Structures are given as structure tokens and as C-alpha cells.
């Protein structure tokens, strides 16, 4: 097939399929090693991360050579179309190393104003959350299901997720805790799977800080397609990363934003 034979959704699914095939043989295997990208802490990268991104880049080189690429492991490749594929081959490598199924493959197609198409793929559970124009679906063990966010309007009934208990700086932690003190339940350690669960109507809020564009662009597309809202802590665009508030609906977003905007 030539590049004109395949839709963007076809390409996105090809990327997710390729990443699945590369990553799964590494998961929960004894002796899986990781390099540390952060001399002051622990930011692991494995052979699976690198091989999966290379596999996805090879597909884009064949079918979308005019598009740019932003990937976690191999950086930016300029394009000429004004569109960029944003790739995180394993979001949640710490979870991957620990054997938890909270990691995922993140794929987004983005323009100047942010992502228009996104996939959160969990290869081990066989779940693929897809969001784009007129499309918000989960393909998984029970077949295809529609994604739709919850209608929870009050913070005291909400379920809040984040990845790291410290969230970010001490000031950002204080802002997070001001919201957490108001909600019904708070959970940590979910990586990108938290955003997938929000889109699927299982939880209500995800609040994080210090994110990169490749951490959040696919979740933005999926959550917004399912009826949710994703902004920064001031209510502005979040596709460049930083502080992120994802909410199931406008009322809940407004309630959490009113607290976070003072952080």
C-alpha cells in the first residue's frame, strides 16, 4: 500500500500493533534490565522502549514520510506537512519493570492546536482505547465498547488518580492535596492507564505535573472524544505538558480548576 491507501486511523493502529509485537516478549521476563536516564533519580528505559519506537518510526517513514515525529526515546524528526506523530513507546516504564499492567503505548497525531487522534494501548490486557473525530471506543477482551466519561458533578463523590504521590514540586503537591482532601477516593501509581480509565467512565479526575508532550497528547485525544476535558492548571491548553488536569465533565473540571488555579 502507498501512503494514500491508508487513513490516519489505519496508520495509528499499525503503529500500536507493531509496538505490541515488540514489547510483549519483554514483559514480566526475568532479568529485564534498564538504563537510567536521570542521574539525579531513576528514569528507566529498556530495550523494549527503544525497539518499539524504532518499529513505529519505520512504519511512519514508509507511509507518512511528510509528517514530523516526536518520540520519547529518539526525539524530534521534522516534517513538512504541519502534522506530528507523538509517540511514547512505553509510558510507565517503572510499572513495566515492576510487572504491573498500568503502562501503555501512547500514539497521537497532532497539529498546531494539539492532538486530533489518539491511542492508549495496553498490550498485555489487550485493551486499545481510541479517540478521534466521531470515534471514542475501547477494543478489548469483550469486543468493542463505546467510551463515555462519568457525569459526577461534585468533588466529594469523585475518584482522583495520579501517578506519583509527590506529584511535582512541594507547591504542586499542596495544590493536588487541596483537591484530594475534597474527593471521595484517591489512588496512585496508575501511569497512562489512569487516563484510559477516565475515558472509560471508571474514574473522574487525573491530576499530574511535570509531564512531557508525549505523556499527555494521546490521553487528551481519547478523553476529549469520550466527553471529558483536559487542560493545564490555569484552564489553558495542556498538549505541551506541564501541569495537567483531566476531568470527566465540565462541572467537575470547574470545581477542581478553581482549587488548582491558586497553586
From TrEMBL:
Cofactor(s) needed: Mg(2+)
Domain of life per record: Bacteria
Binding annotation for Mg(2+) 1: 72, 88, 91, 215
This enzyme's EC code(s): 3.1.3.15
Pathway annotation from the record: Amino-acid biosynthesis; L-histidine biosynthesis; L-histidine from 5-phospho-alpha-D-ribose 1-diphosphate: step 8/9
InterPro entries listed in its UniProt record: His_9_proposed, Inositol_monoP_metal-BS, Inositol_monoP_superfamily, Inositol_monophosphatase-like
Pfam families recorded: Inositol_P
Keyword NAD belongs to the record: no
Catalytic activity as recorded in UniProt: L-histidinol phosphate + H2O = L-histidinol + phosphate
Gene Ontology MF terms in the entry: histidinol-phosphatase activity; metal ion binding
Gene3D superfamilies per record: 3.40.190.80, Fructose-1,6-Bisphosphatase, subunit A, domain 1 (3.30.540.10)
Alphabetical UniProt keywords: Amino-acid biosynthesis, Histidine biosynthesis, Hydrolase, Magnesium, Metal-binding
Residues that coordinate or bind Mg(2+) 2: 90
Record GO biological process: L-histidine biosynthetic process
Annotated family: Belongs to the inositol monophosphatase superfamily.
NCBIfam families noted in UniProt: his_9_HisN
Protein name: Histidinol-phosphatase
